[in-house]
Design goal:
This protein is of the alpha/beta class and 517 residues long. It folds into two domains: 31-105 and 113-242, 3-Layer(aba) Sandwich (Rossmann fold); 256-491, P-loop containing nucleotide triphosphate hydrolases (Rossmann fold). The protein is built from 15 helices and 26 strands. A nine-stranded mixed sheet has the order 5-4-6-7-3-8-9-10-11, with helices on both faces. Strands 16-15-17-18-14-19-20-21-22 form a nine-stranded mixed sheet, sandwiched between helices. The protein has a two-stranded antiparallel ribbon with strand order 1-2. Helix 12 (350-364) packs parallel to helix 14. It is elongated and about 90 Å long.
């Protein structure tokens, strides 16, 4: 499949084919120019350099040349086989060539007299012509400084290398080492002046977790997205997750679907919208997982494929719980209508979880997706990365016009000031609150629809019970205030009369009379 090249503007770009990368760079790498990719050890510089070439071969039938100053060709070929990239096969097909400038094992480099890159440039040019290359990757120029003591000479020759690549009319990617995630762009402080463009890869340690990010620092004369963007290395190579660069272009559906509970559907004005994201917030044990079970069971009954990501309970626990409420999840699994994916949040980084979830949703073709619960993911991430995770997941689900039901656990048993600790409620379309209510020495439960975008919804807080048949929503609480704040109190008759007096006349389009009261 050919990738599109952005030929608009004064500097046309070459699409790299790396997921998310071309969105961040607004089309790819500037055509016919050199781009420096700088990063610390383990930041995936070599993977990016090889992936750029492989995608050119596979997607655009463009030959590629890899120049290695550090690793041997055999080592590089073995390392990238894990991503399914067979460099030897590309070489046999005449689409790929390696220029080996790596030092001999155990050899000692002795600098004697002047040195220039004329011979190296001649080798690169010969390889470019041999495979009709349009892309070249050089990995890594920082190795030259350990071989030659004269930094000024190395800088001069690097400029010659950059100029020579430009004359060959190839798009080049050059890697360099840096010693810290934030600080000098490259180890020796001169590498960044060799290239027209600079990209920084980071492998940051945050709260005992590694997180990779990409930043376009300089794109001379070419537009690009600003800031750091998370990326991960999967079995397919680098995949950038440009969450803050995404556009709000999703379609909006007027089709309603059922929650599986008729009374709750009525409270939501007729059910959830097909492409909406619903957040259920409540304390532990108040029925959030039951709501997820009912939602998925209703979809399976209607022949829709449903998928649940469980981060707190195992598959067997979910099956047992569902049977306890009269829902046969095994049956839906056997019929291919339900898929359960269970994992501890600690097993992967948040970016890897997001990538896996998107693949599962796409591969299964899910029409309803549930996440139980977001709170589990929140505990293994920073506030910023958690919000980016939620944005990435919700936008992906909405683009597919799929319904998403997320649960989150409040810190307080009786209520709280925030629906979620990281205030992700603004990202969701609908919010349902479930609360414990203590009245007259008895613990009861209350449910209310706090938010329903684009639709009327019931404003009352209704009492509900849970038994072996599921959830039963009853009448609104009367003469009770402070439920959502976690401090329920009964309102005496005199205070009720005073409150009613404050709302004489039309209310929500209905005239309130004494009889109505």
């Amino acid at each position: 499949m050919a990738t599109e090249t952005n030929n608009t503007g004064p500097f046309p770009k070459v699409a790299t084919g790396i997921p998310g990368f071309d969105l961040v760079t607004d089309g790819g790498l500037p055509k016919g120019r050199s781009t420096l990719v700088s990063g610390t050890s383990g930041s995936a510089k070599t993977i990016l350099a090889v992936q750029f070439l492989v995608n050119g071969i596979q997607n655009d039938d463009e030959g590629g040349v890899f120049v290695t100053f550090e690793e041997t060709p055999d080592d590089i070929a073995r390392n990238v086989m894990a991503f399914g990239w067979d460099l030897a096969a590309f070489q046999k097909q005449g689409q790929f060539a390696i220029v080996d400038v790596s030092p001999e094992p155990g050899g000692v480099v002795v600098e004697a007299g002047g040195y220039d890159f004329s011979g190296l440039l001649a080798r690169i040019e010969a390889a470019v012509k041999k495979v009709n290359a349009r892309r070249v990757s050089v990995d890594s120029i920082s190795a030259l400084f350990s071989q030659f003591a004269d930094a000024g000479m190395v800088r001069r020759e690097l400029f010659r290398l950059s100029a020579g690549l430009k004359k060959m009319d190839v798009t080049a990617l050059i890697t360099a080492e840096r010693v810290a995630e934030y600080g000098d762009i490259a180890r020796h402080g001169i590498e960044e002046f060799v290239a027209d463009n600079v990209i920084i890869l980071r492998n940051i340690l945050q709260e005992e977790k590694r997180r990779r990010t990409l930043e376009v620092l300089k794109y001379r004369g070419a537009p690009h997205q600003k800031g750091e963007f998370p990326f991960t290395v999967s079995d397919r190579g680098i995949e950038v997750l440009p969450l803050s660069a995404m556009e709000l272009t999703q379609k909006s559906s007027n089709v309603r679907l059922s929650s599986g509970n008729e009374v709750l559907d009525g409270m939501c004005g007729g059910g959830f919208y097909r492409d909406s994201i619903i957040l259920i917030s409540g304390a532990t044990g108040c029925g959030k997982t039951l709501s997820v079970t009912t939602f998925l069971d209703d979809g399976s009954k209607r022949g829709e494929k449903t998928l649940v990501f469980a981060f707190e309970e195992s598959r067997e626990q979910l099956l047992r719980n569902a049977i306890g409420w009269g829902k046969d999840f095994r049956k839906w699994e056997d019929e291919g209508l339900l898929k359960i994916v269970c994992a501890y949040p600690e097993t992967l980084g948040l970016d890897d979880h997001l990538l896996r979830m998107k693949r599962e949703i796409e591969a299964f073709g899910a029409r309803r997706v549930a996440v139980d619960s977001l709170s589990a993911m929140e505990r293994v991430s920073t506030g910023k990365s958690f919000r980016e995770f939620v944005i990435g997941l919700t936008s992906f689900i909405k683009e597919r016009e799929t319904a998403g039901l997320f649960t989150t656990t409040t810190a307080s048993l009786m209520g709280g000031t925030s629906v979620t600790e990281e205030n992700i409620s603004i990202i969701t379309d609908s919010i349902i609150l479930m609360r414990y209510v203590e009245l007259m020495g008895e613990m009861q439960r209350g449910i209310t629809v706090l938010k329903m975008r684009g639709s009327w919804h019931d404003k009352a807080i209704r009492q509900y019970d849970i038994d072996d048949k599921g959830m039963h929503i009853g009448k609104p609480f009367h003469n009770v205030g402070g439920i959502l704040a976690g401090t329920p109190v009964q309102v005496v008759g005199g205070e009720i009369e005073k409150l009613d007096g404050m709302f004489e006349g039309p209310r929500d389009g209905v005239t309130v009379t004494g009889a109505d009261r």
